[in-house]
Amino acid sequence: MFGESNGKAREKTLSRVGRKPISVPPGVQLSLDYSQVTVTGPKGTLIQKLHPEVKVTLENGMVLVERLSPRKFHRAVHGLTRSLIANAIVGVTDGYTRSLDLMGVGYRAQQNGNNVVLNVGYSHSVEIKPVEGVIITVEGNNKIHVQGCSKEEVGGVAAKIRKVRPPNAYKEKGIKYSDEVLRLKPGKAAARKA
């Protein structure tokens, strides 16, 4: 008895992301297959695979995602599928951009064709090659922009660049996302002076 009432209360407080219909903007074509959704727009084409236990329908220019049961797994896949389809639609219309900043004396980035060459304090330079569908551009000497229509691929390439020299919490050196807030630490020397 207690378990049933608790489950019903929990069902009401859960996020209802999966239930929100996704509007398909003009200029975007969406085709449904049994196992995937193909989204085509001005920026390109994305194919999103679907979980077999989620039902996706297209009605009056709106994409509806339905789950098969209120089980925890189906609720999780429901919201995830809805978010992935919405991200694909945004990607083919507006695209995604992730920017990174290089911090440190002598740290710089250079464009080499489609690739970017990083000089970040190592004895050698590091060259990053983008995956297909992702464009890397360098602004000035210390700002990098990663652009593409796939949110997953843009985020993956940006994370790969950041991983070359993650930001140091003590020395204010490294590669960080432009919107990343760093909590810099004073270190032992500052503690001794105090």
Give the number of helices: 4
Computed structural class:
alpha+beta
Say what oligomer this is. Answer: single chain
Q: Outline, from the CA principal axes? A: elongated
Binned strand content = 25-35%
Report the end-to-end length measured between terminal Cα atoms: 60 Å
Tally of strands? 13
Low-confidence stretches: 1-5, 9-13
Q: So, the CATH homologous superfamily of the largest domain?
A: Ribosomal protein L6
Shape-level CATH architecture of the largest domain: Alpha-Beta Complex
Integer count of domains: 2
**How would a crystallographer describe the biggest sheet?**
4 strands, antiparallel
Order of helices and strands: HEEEEEEHEEEEEEHEH
Rg from alpha-carbon coordinates: 22 Å
**Annotated CATH topology of the largest domain:** Outer Surface Protein A, domain 3
| Arithmetic mean pLDDT | 86
Level-1 CATH class name of the largest domain: Alpha Beta
Brief summary:
The protein has 194 residues and is an alpha+beta fold.
Task: Tell me about this structure.
By secondary structure, this protein is of the alpha+beta class. The protein has 2 domains: 2-93, Alpha-Beta Complex (Outer Surface Protein A, domain 3); 96-177, Outer Surface Protein A, domain 3. Helices cover 28% and strands 35% of the residues. It has helices at 2-13, 72-93, 151-164, 187-193; strands at residues 22-23, 29-32, 36-41, 44-49, 54-59, 62-67, 96-103, 108-112, 115-119, 126-128, 134-139, 143-148, 174-177. The protein has a 4-stranded antiparallel β-sheet with strand order 11-12-7-13, with helices on one face. The chain has a 3-stranded antiparallel β-sheet with strand order 1-6-5. The longest helix has 22 residues, at 72-93.
